[in-house]
């Protein structure tokens, strides 16, 4: 579904990533680790087309990223659910509208989707927060809301950047459980994280590959994680 | 861009308007700019139409009349006047000619010398009003014949001083129209600035929308619709205020001269009603241009 072949990315004259190759297939589960500033977020952005590689080839759903115009790119993004580390929301809209935003921008009638939206909000434990504004939410609620927004369009791929960065262990387990559940439904999952405990917990429940960025290159991490 | 896309941009998904935060100084700036510019445009249009009317009237009235002046000694004046009238009646292109009475000549001089001017005691030449028909007469030929048969006659076809007046009125009309165009350009510039400010202020909103798969057209729609409607409302208020202002100007009168004729007449009152839709069109184009440029800069 998403393939990077010998991809490199340079910024300001220096290499951030070099010779990166990775393939996200249906039902695959990947963790991406590495020190801060190693290029994890950059790699995720290359995967969902927010950045174009300066070398190599990136394909989204069998289409070269460079061949996509802006409208085609928008359509591709509807097939990829992204959870940002900082959980960006539209602060003036109620939570339910924020979660339903992918449906809104793709022209779905929200009245028809009300049942699904309610079910999804219950699934992420936000059933009672329909009308809350994003600034009123706790860190954990924001992370769960971001995950709900990422999956509301039933995307083929879910990409999450430090989804448990601002939550306690219990909440991170809950979020992980949600992602594993989605993976079992056939979605490809890619999670960038520092949290080795989270990776260990996931590996006990799902077959996950752990990738590590080191010296601008992507390596398969050891099985002892 | 076809009509369907324009309709979608303005009327498409009402949800699109909600995704952009509603408040901000750009709303007030757009309303104010559109209103003020529409107000000024009404006055520029009024000036343009009034000066156009004036130019047409002067051109029309003065082009068809001429004056024959008989500068003869008092004892020959009547004789030469009769001879001149006889020549004029025979001249092709002259529809009518008549000698002005003493009272009419006194009325012409009254603004300078007062109403009780004893004209008969002054060496004032006899004036003959000449009205030409549609074909017009040969002024050079007529002058030649008059110089031979009526030595005291001087033909003034008004062209000498009519042309600069008509030119001045036409220049005024052109200046007023240029003002309308400049007002339109300034409105576009201000709305572009306001739209750019709104787009910059909502950069994060735009990034979130792009992230969840919004097309550029959808994002632009929210801004275009908002600025177009604001410009339409602002221009509507500006035009209404401007029209009231024009309506309150003094009625046209001979005493007041040109300055009292600065209004619209008849169907001319409909002309300012074009300004709000035009303002909205300018806002539509300016915002679309600004939105496309800004969105093109984002990944």
Automatic annotation (TrEMBL), chain A:
One Pfam family in the UniProt entry: ABC_tran
GO terms classed as biological process: cell division
Keywords from the UniProt entry: ATP-binding, Cell cycle, Cell division, Nucleotide-binding
ABC transporter domain segment(s): 2-225
MF-aspect GO terms: ATP binding; ATP hydrolysis activity; transmembrane transporter activity
InterPro entries reported for this sequence: AAA+_ATPase, ABC_transporter-like_ATP-bd, ABC_transporter-like_CS, ABC_transpr_LolD-like, P-loop_NTPase
One cellular component (GO) term of this entry: plasma membrane
PANTHER family: CELL DIVISION ATP-BINDING PROTEIN FTSE, IMPORT ATP-BINDING PROTEIN
Protein's name according to its UniProt entry: Cell division protein FtsE
Species of origin: Seohaeicola zhoushanensis
Automatic annotation (TrEMBL), chain B:
Keyword Aminoacyl-tRNA synthetase: no
ABC3 transporter permease C-terminal domain span: 180-294
Source organism superkingdom: Bacteria
Naturally occurring in which organism (per UniProt): Seohaeicola zhoushanensis
Stated name of the protein: Cell division protein FtsX
GO terms (BP aspect): cell division
UniProt keyword Nuclease present: no
Subcellular location as annotated: Cell membrane
Keywords of the record: Cell cycle, Cell division, Cell membrane, Membrane, Transmembrane, Transmembrane helix
A GO CC term attached to the entry: cell division site
Membrane topology: Multi-pass membrane protein
Family annotation (InterPro entries): ABC3_permease_C (IPR003838), FtsX (IPR004513)
Lineage per the UniProt record: Bacteria, Pseudomonadati, Pseudomonadota, Alphaproteobacteria, Rhodobacterales
Annotated TM spans: 25-47, 175-199, 231-249, 269-291
């Amino acid at each position: 579904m998403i393939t990077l072949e010998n991809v490199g990315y340079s910024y300001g004259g220096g290499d951030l990533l070099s010779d990166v190759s990775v393939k996200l297939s249906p039902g695959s589960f990947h963790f991406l680790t590495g020190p801060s500033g190693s290029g994890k977020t950059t790699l995720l952005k290359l995967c969902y087309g927010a950045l174009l590689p300066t070398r190599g080839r990136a394909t989204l759903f069998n289409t070269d990223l460079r061949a996509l115009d802006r409208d085609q790119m928008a359509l591709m993004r509807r097939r990829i659910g992204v959870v940002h580390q900082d959980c960006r929301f539209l602060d003036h809209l109620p939570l339910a509208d924020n979660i339903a935003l992918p449906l809104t921008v793709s022209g779905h009638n929200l009245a028809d989707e009300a049942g699904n939206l309610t079910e999804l909000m219950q699934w992420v434990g936000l059933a009672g927060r329909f009308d809350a504004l994003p600034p009123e939410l706790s860190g954990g609620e924001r992370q769960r809301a971001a995950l709900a927004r990422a999956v509301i369009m039933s995307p083929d791929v879910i990409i999450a950047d430090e989804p448990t960065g601002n939550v306690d262990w219990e909440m991170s387990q809950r979020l992980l459980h949600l992602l594993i559940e989605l993976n079992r439904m056939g979605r490809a999952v890619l999670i960038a994280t520092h949290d080795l405990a989270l990776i260990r917990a996931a590996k006990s429940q799902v077959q996950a590959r752990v990738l590590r960025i080191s010296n601008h290159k992507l390596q398969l991490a050891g099985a002892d994680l | 861009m076809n009509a369907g896309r324009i309709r979608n941009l303005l009327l498409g998904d009402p949800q699109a308007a909600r995704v952009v935060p509603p408040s901000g100084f750009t709303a007030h700036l757009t309303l104010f700019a559109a209103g003020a510019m529409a107000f000024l445009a009404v006055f520029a249009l009024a000036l343009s139409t009034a000066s156009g009317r004036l130019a047409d009237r002067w051109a029309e009235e003065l082009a068809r009349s001429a004056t024959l002046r008989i500068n003869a000694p008092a004892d020959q004046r009547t004789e030469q006047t009769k001879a001149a009238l006889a020549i004029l009646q025979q001249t092709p292109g002259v529809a009518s000619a008549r000698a002005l009475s003493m009272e009419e000549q006194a009325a012409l001089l009254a603004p300078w010398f007062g109403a009780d001017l004893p004209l008969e005691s002054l060496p004032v030449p006899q004036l003959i009003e000449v009205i030409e028909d549609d074909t017009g007469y040969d002024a050079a030929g007529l002058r030649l014949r008059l110089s031979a048969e009526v030595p005291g006659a001087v033909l003034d076809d008004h062209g000498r001083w009519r042309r600069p007046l008509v030119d001045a009125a036409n220049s005024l009309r052109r200046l007023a129209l240029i003002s309308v165009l400049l007002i339109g350009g300034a409105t576009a510039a201000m709305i572009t600035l306001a739209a750019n400010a709104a787009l910059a202020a909502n950069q994060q909103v735009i990034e979130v929308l792009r992230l969840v798969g919004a097309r550029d057209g959808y994002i632009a729609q929210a801004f275009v619709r908002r600025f177009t409607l604001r410009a339409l409302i602002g221009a509507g208020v500006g035009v209404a205020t401007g029209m009231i202002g024009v309506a309150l100007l003094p009625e046209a009168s001979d005493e007041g001269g040109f300055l009292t004729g600065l209004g619209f007449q008849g169907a001319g009152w409909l002309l300012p009603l074009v300004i709000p839709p035009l303002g909205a069109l300018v806002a539509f184009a300016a915002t679309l241009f600004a939105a496309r440029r800004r969105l093109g800069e984002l990944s």
